[in-house]
Design brief:
21% strand, 15 helices, homodimer, globular, alpha+beta, Uridine Diphospho-n-acetylenolpyruvylglucosamine Reductase, domain 2, 4 domains, Uridine Diphospho-n-acetylenolpyruvylglucosamine Reductase, domain 3
Amino acid sequence: MDLGWLRRRFGDRFVEDGAVAALYVRDASFMEFSRSAIGVVFPEEEEEVVELVRWAVENRTPLFPQGCATSLSGNAAATAPGLVVSFERMAKVEVDPVDGVAVVGPGVKLEELNLALARYGLFFPVDPGSVKSATVGGAIANGAGGMRGAKYGTMKDWVLGLRVVTGRGDVLRLGCRTYKCRNGYDLVRLFVGSEGTLGLITEATLKLAPVPESAAAVLAYYRDVETLVEDVVRVRASRVWPLFAEFLDAPTSALVGLEEKNALFIGVDVNAGAEEKVINKLRGLLRGEVALEAAGWEASMRLLEPRRRLFYGQIKAAGGGVLVIEDVAVPISKLPDAVRGLKAAAARHGVPLLLGGHVGDGNIHPATWYRREEGPARVENFIRDMAELVAKLGGTISAEHGIGVLKRELAKAELGEAALSYMRELKRLFDPYNVLNPGKVLPG
Amino acid sequence: MDLGWLRRRFGDRFVEDGAVAALYVRDASFMEFSRSAIGVVFPEEEEEVVELVRWAVENRTPLFPQGCATSLSGNAAATAPGLVVSFERMAKVEVDPVDGVAVVGPGVKLEELNLALARYGLFFPVDPGSVKSATVGGAIANGAGGMRGAKYGTMKDWVLGLRVVTGRGDVLRLGCRTYKCRNGYDLVRLFVGSEGTLGLITEATLKLAPVPESAAAVLAYYRDVETLVEDVVRVRASRVWPLFAEFLDAPTSALVGLEEKNALFIGVDVNAGAEEKVINKLRGLLRGEVALEAAGWEASMRLLEPRRRLFYGQIKAAGGGVLVIEDVAVPISKLPDAVRGLKAAAARHGVPLLLGGHVGDGNIHPATWYRREEGPARVENFIRDMAELVAKLGGTISAEHGIGVLKRELAKAELGEAALSYMRELKRLFDPYNVLNPGKVLPG
């Protein structure tokens, strides 16, 4: 392996120090996926990314692209001896408020983008739990979702165009700067959620949204999670389409500083003046105890703050155990069946279970854990039952966290052999030497 | 070619009558793309579609899939001696209003779908000019857009899942029934807009939207198109994000029954009670003469009705000439430059020019025509300049009509050789025998 070229080309932007590299080989998951890397490189220009790919092909050395590595399935972990490519320094932001478009580097944090947009009354609506540290490039690569998915969908709905470098070192300009775009096959969406396995993103053209004029939200407490999710179904059946509908189960609520009750956070965007009407409608529909109300966009977003601490609650609950955060979605009407089934499976296998997530779009994050000394067997059995349940309910085992290393076998069952074989051929087409984030997404 | 199997398998659902076939070989474009077909077949089940593909491969006979053939670029035309596959009879509709999802056959018309949804207060927001006859399968294959693209985007934003039969006869289940979905590579969006060249759609799972509580709209007349599109820019710069912003130039307005003035139709969705405020805001922003106002969803949609007659206006204007309807999009801020440039190009080449379209998302449909006896040379020169102009403004030569036969050379210049070569390999992967709608999308 020719490290000399890396040293000459990148100077102090190629870091070989093992202690630094050790910070970059992991993502936010708790399983041990990582190996030691030969170093971390920080490109600043697309041309450098092209040269890195060519170097990787010549040296048959894997590249592990990274934003801020907040993924939870090993997506961004360096799982083989290779080079971590950090996009931290490719962080330009160009906003056109009339066009409703931002052209950004992959290393821009979602939070930074939103700060740049605030002066125009615009925002980027995709709002994953990791929004304060997640980068645009990472969010695209992982097809991130989050808190406002009920109204705004996920990354796949907000990327208009991309520049990517494939595993053959080709630069592809994909998509358009306009909202409508029909120039050939739509390869943009093939790259969204491909976890850096088909190409490295060097620039993204994002669609923006106007900040809604206002919103109204309530926090309601429930005795049991079943009634809580039944109420989400009632809200939808009553033709209220929330901006967000989020929840925490009672133990998690306590861990993030709320009362130890199952908490439903539900908000709707409205025109100024319509807040009261929505709050009254929600009070009429919800059987839980409404503990807080918010009128206005900022107030509604603030009401959601405790929900944002779900991840910290899960970490606390797991103690020193190995935390496994799952990420299923079911059709909204099936949420009650999903909650009942998940609880039964956890009881059957004797594993701890915390529930929380984005019920407004049917997305639940069951969290469980095991002590290292006892091993993962019971958790694995629980996950097998979970996957079976979700399939039966017409859902998916991967809503927004992606496949990474963790979900490859589950994905295999869900996708079926036919779709998988085409996906394998796509990987060969875009990355024939398997240098881009190898070992992710596709099962072995 | 073994027609015996077709006759046995499909009985009277295989129509060989040349007069009937002649009705199916064309789409709505005016150029002469079509050849005579060996017949039309009407499958009712996915398994029949699989068998048709296998038959096509064995007999090296192209299949030309069709909804209602309302495409405008030859997308659905039978351009070689082959078999037209009409999806008219695969027209199931299953709605789940709580999940906000419909599972439909490809042959369902968008209008029929919306009729089925009305009772739930839901609708399918993609609204192409051909909405009364266009089918879901055709709209997906063509990545249709339309009147409400400013707010709701295009088909690519509303397809959650697909079942497709590839050119290798494989059935692929793609995507999910849930709004969030990250199970492997996103092949759904690769098929949206692929014009039947990668696979035949046998079922689609669509995302639905709640009918907005209310809307407000105005029709304003302008002396010149330049001021009209400048006002669209002003509206966006004033942080009003319209549901629709549509226009007709003065000659087209007259042809569809309005005053002979440039007409801007602009609407915003709101909560009930906020209509007046929006209308006043629009009155304050627009420099045109506000001739009509509408408050309420239905009233706002009715206000748009004359705009829906653009196509008929264009046909009338062209007289017996060969009508060429183009389909460009530019960033919204560039609309004034686009209008000025298009007019200059038409004057330069001495071709007639009508303007109309979806200015709310930057999408203009320049229409021109030529008499058969004079030939297309001047129109071709105009189109060459149009493409150059659009590229310079950061736009695209194909916003929503697709590539078909007509735009293949224009697409080539816009996409560049690198992206095109990957697209060719994708075509080989999904349709190695080139039996699915050959001669479309990709340039020769």
